[in-house]
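FAQ: What does the model actually see?

It sees only this:
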Amino acid sequence: MNIAPYLPHFRPRLLDFLGRCDSASVRADLIAGLTVAVVALPLAMAFAIASGVPPQAGIFTAIIAGLLISGLGGSRLCIGGPTGAYIVILHGIAVQYGVANLAVATFMAGIMLLLMGVFRLGQFIRFFPMPIITGFTNGIAVIILLTQLKDFFGLQVASMPDNFFAVLHLLWHEIGNLHWPTFLLALSSLVVILSWPKRFGRRLPAPFVALVGAGLVTALAHLPVATIGSKFGGIPLGLPTFTPLLFDWENFSNLLSPASKIALLGAIESLLCAVVADKATGDHHDSDQELMAQGIANLVVPLFGGIAATGAIARTATNIQNGGRTPLAGIFHALALLIVVLVAAPLASYVPLAVLAAILVATAIKMGDWDIRKAQHYPRRDTLVLATTFALTVLFDLTIAIEIGLLLAGMFFIFRIADQTVLKQLTPDYTEALIRHAIVGKVIPAHTVVYRMEGALFFGAADKLDLLLDEVADDKLVVVLQMHRVTLLDTTGLLAIEQLAVKLAARGQVLILCSVLADNAVRIAEAGLMQTLGADNIQLDLVGGLARAEAVVMSHKSSIAIKSGA
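And it is asked to produce this:
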């Protein structure tokens, strides 16, 4: 089998701009890239710590993934790096299987993402309805918020539980033991982030302001709060070092499910990020190329101590708002972070964990869509899908939430399509109107009934053909079924037509199909219905169907006359 036609061309968007960038474009990309780096620095550290790894893992991820995704991706302005959506999954893997196996799972996810792009699965995002995406995004936001309450309140507990109800139980019993210096620092940082004027945010992002401000206050006032230095010993100065993966073959099969979660969420978020960028710029991304770049990035990042990466919507929006023009902006952002690691890494020791918790709480607040008033404008079924996905994400698991959400959305879609499939009887008055308009040159013959099927004749609506058996009187000899408005015909629909023909034949009646669309005619022929119905009983249009019905009726009358004469 030749699979070459199904494989995409590997062509990064960066190649479309190399050699065409003038000094103004490069300058705009440089300014945008530096601004994005200022935003990315505190987020990368916060995401890493929340995922159960040292802060430098987040920065290394932002550097390496930022370079690879911008350099090899299929989107012009998407920024790659660690994101808040991954926190829940990565922290769970790190706790259950260890940090070494987290790197292995990330590597496996990279392979999956790469294969998705290679086999052109980039359009699969279309199969995720917006209520599902909104539901699990809001659910992830709630979980992120809950995981940060320990550092936000300065609670003296080893870690926050994974179970939602266990978290509530712990908070109920520990909230009275909050550490006031930590809480006040975190709260003031959160206020700064949420209230920072937008006119300043383009050049001086709120998370960076909170990070620097909290660090200065902590250092100058000698606040007794936990910092990156006190918990992690600071961030090492220098380049990330190559770290070979340690495959734990006993857990390898167990890592398939976590790796699939990383790949699935990474694919969804990266393609959503690309769509957001397209809407803001009028550009058009290559989804398969984007997935291949995401896959390569997640293959390389764990080899240098990083964590899973994907397209970051907030940083991409910052890139666009600050004048980014080409993929060079994402590359400049990564290089700027690299310079920070090589020059200013020791300063990170003064960063309090409280401010990173505040940054993540603000991220959770901003990433969710909390306007419940919108629900009144949604169909109730979509609202139910959103609410179910949200509840399952918070209470149980992201994978379960997506599976059940897709199942519900699929069922409701089937119900809607089935409701739109109707069977109408064409009356003599209707055909006379057609005659007057010169559309049909035949009247309905005696002992003949004509029906029109509209919509999709598929497994969810095939039973509607059974109505014919109940409605068609015994004195009718021919049933004509007009199908020019049948837009979909699946195997169940084909079997329903065959069974209808057989049951009518058992009653001495004939089924004639007419006006079948070309694609459906091919399926009917391939299913062997030409033999079951008879080639003469499949006509091109209603005129032919009525003519064939008249011939059947005349033949029946002739046979009766012959028998009577005999």
